[in-house]
Write a structure and sequence with these properties.
Layout (H helix, E strand, L loop, with lengths): L13 E5 L7 H9 L2 H4 L4 E6 L1 H12 L12 E3 L13 H19 L5 E4 L4 H6 L7 H9 L5 E7 L6 E6 L6 H7 L2 H17 L7 E4 L15 H16 L4 E2 L10 H8 L10 E4 L2 H12 L4 E5 L4 E5 L16 H24 L1
Parallel strand pairs: 1-2, 1-4, 2-3, 4-11, 6-9, 7-8, 7-9
Antiparallel strand pairs: 5-6, 5-10, 10-11
Helix pairs in contact: 1-3, 1-12, 4-6
Length: about 350
């Protein structure tokens, strides 16, 4: 196939789409997204990374009773074939396939052939069965890109389109028992700075307002329920404010109340002033339970800190409904739309600097 050529800043964004675990719903939501008028109106070039036979089979499943894009017209980067797959069952075969799709997309993107990668869901257990021991796609993306300073930022646009919820996780896929050991002043300072740079580079926000969650219940209750906030988190925030006077950073907000105002901003147009530009959560569930309660079908995972844009829908492989033609593509549509938007912002910023 012909990979889209490199082009100037005003050219179409070039997006690599991986189909994820071929035994899951990835191929289905990718094809349904490309058939959506919102995506076709974005003015981007899309290339699928996967097995054309699987793509064609899924297309036949979805095409009954409605008009869809002819699979022969899709740009497909063929990555392997002949994997022994059982639809709805993630195993070492499907894990080997999904790893190969992403690995090929990363290689092509690092070579300058694409501006962004949008990844359909994979099964971490299937990767491990195939001999690939990664916590997830994010870690492979960072390793291949040779970056250590990266993070998982979850982005969702409110239904009234006037406010955007952005949540960065300080720690991600680790046991809860390890969270306190991983949370250090160095890590939080690194995540704060990563978040500031992303808000500027990716979203054009030069003077951001950032809310920080406390670590302990009631943010430690003046040391009665934990001393982390008092001993190092609050001093770190005070120091960061002095170093970055253009950034408004809150004191540690008790985790059980931090999400009340963003919920109001999410639901009510007239209360968007209550929302911050971004939220820093200390661990996985502290950040993602509220995000998924508010925006399960809208939230998008974007990996910040990479040399290219990467987004992904905020859900899993859904093996239980694979092949039934009922998977909701809403989050994948949001992921593709966000990737195109972020690429356009980066191109604009690059053009200004140049």
């Amino acid at each position: 196939m012909n990979i889209p050529s490199s082009s100037p800043s005003d050219s179409k964004p070039r997006i690599a789409l991986t189909i994820g675990d071929p035994a899951g719903i990835g191929t289905e939501i990718v094809l349904n997204s490309l058939n959506n008028p919102v995506i076709s109106s974005l003015g981007a070039e899309f290339t699928l990374f996967g097995d054309r036979q699987i793509i064609t089979q899924t297309h036949k499943l979805l095409d009954s009773g409605r008009q869809m894009i002819d699979p022969q017209l899709l740009s497909v980067f063929e990555v392997g074939s002949g994997y022994e797959l059982d639809l709805g069952i993630g195993d070492r075969h499907s894990g080997a396939a999904s790893f190969a799709y992403l690995d090929a997309a990363i290689t092509a993107t690092l070579a300058g052939d694409f501006d962004a990668i949008v990844t359909a869901p994979i099964a971490k257990s299937a990767w491990k069965q195939a001999g690939h021991d990664y916590a997830g796609q994010t870690e492979l993306l960072a390793e291949r890109s040779q970056v250590n300073d990266f993070g998982m930022l979850f982005v969702a646009t409110a239904p009234h389109q006037q406010w955007v919820l952005r949540t960065l996780l300080a720690t991600v896929h680790i046991p809860l028992s390890e969270v306190n050991r991983r949370l250090t002043p160095e890590l939080i300072e690194q995540k704060l700075e990563l978040l500031r740079r992303s808000l500027l580079q990716d979203f054009g926000i030069a003077n951001p307002r950032i809310a920080i969650a406390g670590i302990n219940p009631h943010s430690g209750e003046q040391g009665q329920l934990g001393r982390e906030e008092r001993d190092w988190l609050q001093p770190l925030i005070d120091c960061y404010r002095q170093q970055h006077p253009n950034v408004q950073v809150t004191n540690p907000i008790p985790p059980d109340t931090m999400w009340v105002n963003p919920a109001k901003a999410w639901h009510y147009r007239e209360q968007t002033n209550l929302g911050y530009d971004a939220y820093l959560a200390m661990y996985h569930d502290q950040g993602l339970i509220p995000v998924k309660l508010l925006a399960f079908d809208r939230a998008v995972n974007t990996t910040i800190g990479l040399p290219f844009v990467r987004t992904s829908p905020d859900h899993g492989t859904a093996f239980d409904i694979a092949g039934k033609g009922i998977a909701d593509p809403a989050s994948m549509i949001e992921a593709i739309a966000l990737a195109v938007e972020l690429v356009k912002i980066r191109k604009k910023e690059t053009a200004i600097i140049s």
